[in-house]
């Protein structure tokens, strides 16, 4: 199994190019199922989750041609297999995103129930409730969701909680429904807007994406389009925090700063100087960061996907920080690993109290999920001595060539087998 070995203590200095966003790319790829024409997707990140999604779409009958690893053309002329099997869904929960488009286009879909995962239970009841409101007949048997609907009907759907992939699944399904669908309490994440832009380019009639009410007027069919995946705001945030924690200076290019307000506010509060333009952002951190309290919540509030990285920065900050995770019930797994590096953290329920110390100690640690892996890298970069991170397959699902990008800006980091 691969490990990452980090020698800590080097401030990050230099420039990094940001990749396309994983959480925008995955739903956009699924949108290809909604039409028999070709969808061209650009700026795809080279990640294991993207490869898994492409394999699933291929297995379902989508013809995929790749110009280079960043650009693909997907043509789903006939959907030959309307099944997303357990083997796929268990490795990547986002496979649930094929449910809405498959049902809307083919009138039928069978997909494995995702089950729980490392960060929480993560049920998909809202996806199911929404599709049922649109007239789908849904049965759950032997761990699979079987959905049938000759023709989905527009409906008013009030979601019980804000769900990103739930909103995306229902928005895709509604593009081909008969009549108008109104999604209330919809997710406002930038990735939802990116998907809406792709669907609109394909001929969908969608209003209000980016607000909590999205209205979709169903159309008879969608057509070919070209879409460029938005830059990854979480990758951007992760490198900014790594630079801030290591008291470095970093310039990130090819990113989008208007989707990062809550993260940038917290970095400024920690003492970082930040400048930005249309597609770049730079951060300089001269002194020890100050502790910053974090409370995760749906967009535009502070993202759960950045909580673990800020935890690592707070471990070596000046003061005490209170970090509250409100989205997932088990997303503080990195605490135990950070403690192995001598971090001073107490957990009570969904809250971690982090007392900053002068320096972490390098240690052998284990990644528990994708963003926890990123937090351990940041901890390793600022620790004294060597840190070895095991189970980095989580990392390869969501960060493109992270060790290469970090090496470029002075990190002592290498992958071993
Ligand atoms: N929830 C339900 N029922 C549902 C759907 C969600 O109870 O039917 C609950 C979840 O259990 C959770 C909360 O609602 O407690 C929010 O979950 P959400 O559905 O928004 O999460 P998701 O769509 O499964 C996406 C991202 C996650 C990110 C979350 C929150 C993708 C592919 N994944 O997940 O990304 O953390 O939104 O912003 O878009 C990551 O990239 O590391 C990652 C986990």
Briefly, what is this?
The protein has 417 residues and is α/β, with parallel strands linked by helices. The chain is built from 14 helices and 24 strands. It has helices at residues 22-31, 48-59, 86-91, 99-106, 125-133, 164-175, 190-201, 233-245, 261-269, 307-315, 334-340, 370-382, 393-398, 402-408; strands at residues 3-7, 13-17, 38-42, 63-68, 71-75, 83-84, 108-112, 137-141, 144-148, 156-158, 180-184, 205-207, 213-217, 225-228, 249-253, 273-276, 280-284, 294-295, 320-324, 344-348, 351-355, 364-366, 386-390, 412-416.
Structural class: alpha/beta
Radius of gyration (CA) equals: 21 Å
- The whole-number mean of residue pLDDT values reads 96
Within the largest sheet, what's the order of strands? Answer: 22-23-1-24
**Mind summarizing the main beta sheet?**
4 strands, mixed
What can you see in these coordinates?
With 417 residues, the protein is an alpha/beta fold. Helix content is 32%, strand content 26%. It has helices spanning 22-31, 48-59, 86-91, 99-106, 125-133, 164-175, 190-201, 233-245, 261-269, 307-315, 334-340, 370-382, 393-398, 402-408; strands at 3-7, 13-17, 38-42, 63-68, 71-75, 83-84, 108-112, 137-141, 144-148, 156-158, 180-184, 205-207, 213-217, 225-228, 249-253, 273-276, 280-284, 294-295, 320-324, 344-348, 351-355, 364-366, 386-390, 412-416. The protein has a 4-stranded mixed sheet. Strand 8 (137-141) and strand 9 (144-148) form a beta hairpin. The N and C termini lie close together (6 Å). The mean pLDDT is 96. Bound molecules: uridine-diphosphate-2(N-acetylglucosaminyl) butyric acid (EPU). Uridine-diphosphate-2(N-acetylglucosaminyl) butyric acid binds at residues 23, 26, 94, 120-127, 161, 163-166, 191, 304-305, 327-328, 370-371, 398.
């Amino acid at each position: 199994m691969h490990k990452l070995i980090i020698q800590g203590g080097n401030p990050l200095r230099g420039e990094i190019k940001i990749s396309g966003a994983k959480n925008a790319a995955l739903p956009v790829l699924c949108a290809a199922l909604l039409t028999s024409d070709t969808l061209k997707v650009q700026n795809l990140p080279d990640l294991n989750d993207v490869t898994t999604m492409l394999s699933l779409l291929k297995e379902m009958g989508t013809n995929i041609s790749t110009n280079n690893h960043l650009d693909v053309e997907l043509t789903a002329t006939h959907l030959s297999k309307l099944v997303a099997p357990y083997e796929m869904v268990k490795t990547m929960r986002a496979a649930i995103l094929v449910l809405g488009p498959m049902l809307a286009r083919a009138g039928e879909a069978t997909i494995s129930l995702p089950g729980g995962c490392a960060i929480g239970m993560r049920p998909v009841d809202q996806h199911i409730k929404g599709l049922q409101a649109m007239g789908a007949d849904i049965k759950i048997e032997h761990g699979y969701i079987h959905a049938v609907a000759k023709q989905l009907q527009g409906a008013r759907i009030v979601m019980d909680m804000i769900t990103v992939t739930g909103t995306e699944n229902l928005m895709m399904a509604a593009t081909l429904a008969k009549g108008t669908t109104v999604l209330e309490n919809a997710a406002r994440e930038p990735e939802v807007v990116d998907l809406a832009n792709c669907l609109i380019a394909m001929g969908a009639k969608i209003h209000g994406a980016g607000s909590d009410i999205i209205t979709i007027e169903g159309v008879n069919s969608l057509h070919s389009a070209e879409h460029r995946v938005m830059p990854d705001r979480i990758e951007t945030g992760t490198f900014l925090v790594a630079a801030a924690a290591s008291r470095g200076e970093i310039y990130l290019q090819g990113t989008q700063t208007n989707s990062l307000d809550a993260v940038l506010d917290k970095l400024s509060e920690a003492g970082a100087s930040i400048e930005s333009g249309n597609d770049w952002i730079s951060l300089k951190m001269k002194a020890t960061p100050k502790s910053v309290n974090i409370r995760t919540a749906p967009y535009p509030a502070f993202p759960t996907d950045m909580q673990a990285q800020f935890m690592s920065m707070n471990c070596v900050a000046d003061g005490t920080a209170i970090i509250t995770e409100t989205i997932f019930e088990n997303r503080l797994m990195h605490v135990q690993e950070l403690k192995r590096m001598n971090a001073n953290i107490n957990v009570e329920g969904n809250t971690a109290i982090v007392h900053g110390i002068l320096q972490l100690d390098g240690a052998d640690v284990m990644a528990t999920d994708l963003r926890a892996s990123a937090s351990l890298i940041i901890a390793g970069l600022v620790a004294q001595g060597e840190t070895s991170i095991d189970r980095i397959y989580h990392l390869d699902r969501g960060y493109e060539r992270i060790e290469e990008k970090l090496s470029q800006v002075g990190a002592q980091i290498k992958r071993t087998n």
